[in-house]
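Record type: monomer structure entry
Structure origin: computed from sequence
Chain ID: A
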Amino acid sequence: MLAPLVLGFVLIAAFILWEAYGAKNPMFPKRLRQEPRILGLTLVITFISGANFFSILMFWPTQAFNVYGHGTCHPSHELCWSPFAASCG
């Protein structure tokens, strides 16, 4: 039960070491360390956007079922608002 958590931490540490010492073309080049504030804020914004997307993936099907029912005769334009809402934040 604890193995996935431990494996995740080990793989994150291996990724950091690979990026720092082994990769010819790293995902996070060393020049990004010159401006750590920009990189940090970019990662925070990406995390927040991902959290928003994950919540839509989890809760939107339940909401759509409860609001529109489970029938197949509803037109699809009733559900078109979700991608627009997700892109607007």
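Annotation 1: The longest helix spans residues 36-68.
Annotation 2: The chain has three helices and no strands.
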